[in-house]
Design brief:
Blueprint (H helix, E strand, L loop, with lengths): L12 E5 L8 E6 L2 H12 L3 E7 L11 E10 L5 E7 L11
Parallel strand pairs: 1-3
Antiparallel strand pairs: 2-5, 3-4, 4-5
Length: 99
Amino acid sequence: MATSSIAVRELPLFPLPEVVLFPGRPLPLHIFEFRYRIMMNTILEEDRRFGVLMVDPATGEIAKVGSCAEVVRCQRLPDDRLKILTIGQPSSTLRPSSS
C-alpha cells in the first residue's frame, strides 16, 4: 500500500487583488511597499518561496486557498524597490493557519 507524504510548512503570504497563480506559470511583481520589501528581503535570504492569495477588491476578502511562488529572478532598484519574477510551484495548496 502506498503512503503519501505531505510536507506542511509556514510561508509568508502575499495577498494580491484579482491574481490567481497557476503551477508553472510566471508572475512578475514590482515590490514597492515597505512592508513587502522587508518580507521579500527575508524570502530572498531563505528558500525564495512565499504564498500568493487572491484578494477580492470589492470586498477585501482573502481567498482561503492559494499557491506557492518561487522567486527565480530579482532586480533591486536604486531606491530599494524590487522587480521579481516568480514561478508557480506544482502541487502546492495554501491554507491560512488557524492561529
